[in-house]
Amino acid sequence: MNATNPAAPRRRGLNIVLALVQIVLAFAFGAAGLMKLTQPIEALAASMPWVSAVPSALVRFIGLAELAGALGLILPWLTRIKPQLISLAAIGLILVMVLASAFHLSRGEAGAIPVNVVLAALAAFVAWGRSKAAPIQPRA
């Protein structure tokens, strides 16, 4: 145990959990974003029926937002350049999930809501953790 800072082991554990959650969220949003950016709209509509109900430009924009959020969770953490962007990326992903939930509710797709809620809650944990509890120190 660290005699100079008794909270150090607890903070280290929180840093590990936050890092794992960041990786999981970056993988989930990065994969979803790349899929929406690169797959033909018809192929996307086969697994995501909502795609055919919105303009294709909106599908591509959502994919771009998800990919940007995924990169925002990882790059500032790895490079330690502007690490406060991690919390902003997480907040952006929360917004994406809130809007997705509202959209799915308007279409009567309540089954999609639990995934949106879990992803938003994980992003909220990262936003809180990286802004208040265990912020990443910027590169000196």
Q: What's the total number of strands? A: 0
Number of helices: 5
The coarse silhouette is elongated
| Uncertain stretches of 5 or more adjacent residues | none
Strand content: under 5%
- Biggest sheet layout: none
What does the average pLDDT come to?
95
Tally of structural domains:
1
Helix content: over 70%
Brief overview:
The chain is mostly helical. Helix content is 75%, strand content 0%. The chain has five helices and no strands.
Structure, explained:
This protein is mostly helical and 140 residues long. It has one domain. Helix content is 75%, strand content 0%. The protein is built from 5 helices and no strands. Helix 1 crosses helix 5, helix 3 packs antiparallel against helix 4 and helix 4 runs antiparallel to helix 5. It is elongated, with a radius of gyration of 17 Å. The mean pLDDT is 95.
Secondary structure topology:
Layout: H1 8-38, H2 41-47, H3 56-79, H4 85-106, H5 113-133
Which labels suit this protein?
single chain, 140 residues, mainly alpha, 5 helices, 75% helix, 0% strand
